[in-house]
Design a protein that fits this description.
Layout (H helix, E strand, L loop, with lengths): L19 E4 L4 E4 L2 E2 H7 L2 H10 L5 H12 L6 H9 L6 H15 L8 H26 L13 H10 L5 H14 L6 H11 L4 H13 L6 H12 L5 H10 L19 H14 L3 H18 L6 H11 L6 H22 L21
Antiparallel strand pairs: 1-2, 2-3
Helix pairs in contact: 1-8, 2-16, 3-6, 4-5, 4-6, 5-6, 5-10, 6-7, 6-16, 7-8, 8-13, 8-15, 8-16, 9-10, 9-16, 10-16, 11-15, 12-14, 13-15
The protein binds carboxymethyl coenzyme *A.
The site of carboxymethyl coenzyme *A has 19 residues, from loops.
């Protein structure tokens, strides 16, 4: 029996989901039915997290209770800090974060409570604690002490305060919040599918999230936002973009931040993130960065007609905010934890073990001599 093999599961529909809808024909993305652009313009990341998990936007009372739950769990357990401290600075921040999340799971006595309530509670815990892990790691790499969480601040303002020791301007907080909303969810991408595969074995939520962090690290997926900044550094300035790109394409390099498995005519999230990037470019007075961004994009369109994806504007945005380049993909985790866990809960609600088939193409049956 020879079935058609779709490498990379390209074009294969593997299950239903009610969490989000990606429509490449209209370049649109809906979270629980709402266009992501509308959510980014009108909601906070906390409201979007609530929507992804509960299916509806919160009422004022529901939001207040949700915010209280998130704000009260932001501090890191001393054991998590100790283990992060033990890790060398040569460790990639994604490996530090993957380890820290794993420790939170191992410390949770109810790790095995996979009821909807139990998993929702774990999801809120991770949402609250991941920023502290990322901020702690960023600061220790700069020889700086931990900044304690501030329960008077919203998710994004607190995240930036814990990382940089002060709350930046509203422009920066808003741009960061928009990036969190845009990164929150994107249907059956590689890391979400990974989380669903692990969940389908009835392993716990923490195991699924740790596996998803591993999948997100790669440069073909979440690691691309970091890789985009390395490309910008390599090119240096707008006037060098054309020659750099021609060389890179001639040596068959994949240009990070461009292309997408599902969108072939532009990533629905890019215009919103580009607008946020523009506000940051103005705030930090960096027309040179905009010129480089535009030059590479225009040359890529002229040479290959391949459009940028979300990582293209978010990389330079996080750079302008002051994050080290290696920290960009952990920021993606801080947002995508919402989508991953929404999918974990959805998978469990109508679970079937995910176990596809393969077509064997190794040696014919043979036997040991003698
Ligand atoms: N640079 C150069 N050529 C490209 C690129 C790129 N970024 N993306 C696609 N192509 C070419 C590719 O070489 C191939 O050409 P040919 O048919 O001549 O061999 C054609 O376009 C189809 O590409 P593909 O790799 O078969 O398409 P895919 O659906 O398997 O890949 C992708 C999607 C995202 C892996 C790919 O576009 C890529 O490697 N992009 C760079 C990494 C990146 O930015 N990833 C972030 C993805 S979106 C957000 C996220 O997950 O973080």
């Amino acid at each position: 029996m020879t079935e058609e093999i779709r490498k990379g599961l390209a074009g294969v529909v593997v299950d239903y989901t009610a969490v989000s809808k990606v429509n490449p024909d209209t370049n649109s993305l809906l979270y629980r039915g709402y266009p992501v652009q509308e959510l980014a313009a009108n909601c906070t990341f906390e409201q979007v997290a609530y929507l992804l998990w509960n299916g509806e936007l919160p009422t004022d009372a529901e939001l207040a209770a949700f915010e209280q739950a998130e704000r009260s769990q932001r501090a890191l357990d001393p054991a998590v800090k100790r283990i992060i401290d033990e890790l060398p600075l040569t460790a990639h921040p994604m490996d530090v974060l993957r380890t820290a999340v794993s420790v939170v799971g191992a410390l949770d006595p109810s790790w095995n409570d996979s009821s909807p309530e139990g998993n929702l509670a774990k999801s809120v815990t991770l949402l609250a604690k991941i920023p502290a892990m990322v901020a702690y790691d960023q600061r220790r790499r700069r020889g700086q002490d931990l900044v304690e969480p501030d329960a008077s601040l919203g998710f994004s303002a607190n995240f930036l305060n814990m990382t940089f020791g002060s709350v930046p301007s509203d422009v920066v907080v808003d741009a960061f919040d928009v990036s969190m909303i845009l990164y929150a969810e994107h249907s059956f991408n590689a890391s979400t599918f990974t989380a669903r595969v692990v969940t389908s074995t009835l392993a716990d939520l923490y195991s699924a999230v740790v596996a998803a962090i591993g999948a997100l690290k790669g440069p073909l997926h979440g690691g691309a936002n970091e890789a985009v900044m390395h490309v910008f550094d390599e090119i240096g300035s707008a006037d060098r973009a054309e020659a750099w790109l021609d060389d890179a394409l001639a040596s068959k390099r994949k240009i990070m931040g461009f292309g997408h498995r599902v969108y072939k005519n532009g990533d629905s999230r890019v215009p919103t993130m580009k607008t946020a990037l523009d506000t940051l470019i103005e705030e930090y007075d960096r027309p040179d960065l905009l010129a480089l961004y535009t030059a590479l994009d225009e040359t890529m369109q002229a040479r290959k007609n391949i459009k940028p994806n979300l990582d293209y504007p978010s990389g330079p945005a996080y750079h302008l905010m002051g994050f080290d380049t290696e920290m960009f993909t952990p920021l993606f985790v801080a947002a995508r934890i919402t989508g991953w866990t929404a999918h974990i809960m959805e998978q469990l609600a109508s679970n079937a073990l995910i176990r596809p088939l393969s077509e064997y193409n190794g040696p014919e049956e043979r036997h040991l001599a003698g």
